[in-house]
Model the fold of this input.
Amino acid sequence: MRVAWDQLAAAYRPAAISHRRQIPLRVFVILVVVAATVWRPAFHFLVPWAAACIVAQIIEQQALRYFLTRAEPGRAVIFNLASDVLLAVVFGWASLPIWALGTPVATASAIILVSGSVLTALMGAEGCVAAFLAAVTPHMTYMLVLPLTSATRQDPLGAYYLMGVALFALVLGLVFAWSRRTFEAERSARRLAEAQTAAKSAFVAMVSHELRTPLSAILGGAGDLAREAGDARARDKAALIADAGAMMRALLNDLLDVSKIEAGRMSVEVLDFSPGALIDETVRFWRDEARAKGLALDLAGERDLPPWLRGDPVRLRQVLNNLLSNAIKFTPTGRVALSVRAERRGDGWRVAVEVSDTGPGLSPEQVARLFTAYDQLGPDTARTFGGTGLGLSISRDLARLMGGDLTARSPSQGGAVFELTLPMAAGVAPAVAEPTAAPKPPPSVFDRSPLALVVDDHEVNRRLLSHILDAMGVRVELAADGETGLALAGERRFDVILMDVNMPGLDGLETTRRLRLTGPNTTTPVIAVTAGVSDAEREACRAAGMDDWIEKPFQAATLQRVLWRALDPDLVRA
Done:
């Protein structure tokens, strides 16, 4: 029985949302009817009718609120259906005294009142049979009994009126059946689209994890080759491999960002940061590339910014990097300029960043397509400049997630102008940190090398981590799965454990949870090795008992910094 109630509640929910939207319209109609007619003595009955309608409307509103705010409404739907019947009975009652007035206009008015209510109920049912019957049945009953409430019950044409009501009911049923099929088809298509989006996101996440493993090896190996190369030519080749790997990582990150945005899982942080320093660092990062292409890269307005703002500096930097990268890429000669201004808005600020160039400009058609994902404005663009066509789409989505927008225009004198506008709260300068102790020496200079356990299901990852850690002077033991890792961790104590999060069977989170329960490594630092470090993923790692994380693909220097944070010389074993 509970299943039946849950199914009815699920079917009624769209109707409940529609009914809630119709409340202002119903109240407006009631007030207009009363205001237009109450001054005539024959219509004084509309005053108590309007009061009863308002009471019934309040009851329905409370029932809707109760229903829509419950995680499992179940039997609560019965209160909504009862309130629908009550409102229909009270609202339709006005047709009886109006019909009784006996004039042709009054008769037509009563029919219009009931018919309008029936059509409103049809629209508000959203394909739910129970909602439709609860709201329509009282009105159709009124329509049938109207001729029996006055002298018209002796009218010889009454039978024809009843035939008309029957035909109206037939057409009404056919229209409802058609609308129900339409609603069901629409909802089915929406569920299918949501399932496809979820499947695509899962596929992208899986492919990302698989691609990041060999990419880590490529970047790590390139770094080792560059350090160990004996001549400049070998170092150049290693640098080429590293640059190609970095490019692959950037493309992979774009695909992941699009997947998260489409799935509604992209989030932004709110931190205090210095906007002037962020913009200055971003421009300096791109200045060498602009200079290499013979372009001037100008910056203006950063000194007029407030010293501290609250927002997401990582996502802001990502948007600025995309805009400057595109401007430099598509500008053959001339200059690229970034200007920024801030306006006080109440307790906060409105920041506007404008990136302009002297490139070929954009046609109105190109501006209209500019922020479409995967659209590169034509095959020539893709062949000439490469890329996936995701940068601007991601940038605008990020701008809107931060509460702002990203727009583009092409001035008459040529070139393109992109304007990023963001609302931001005033920030606070961080407290001055206490002087920190001298950084820990690397394990390679310890008298006794630390011992690390690497748990990863992918052989390439195990080999890469073993190679990098060995070069750092860290002794390594390897485990190909969570069960093997737990067995090794139960035999001896390690100084640090590097744990792959996404493993078949016993994944890294569950392995860490079991590790923390018993054995010699309940307090050993565990570093998560993961393909994603979103807030939710970090929180899951913390909840499982992990102490830090490193994102694939990683480089030796990054791994070293994370390792130094985790290792304590007092824990180093012989």
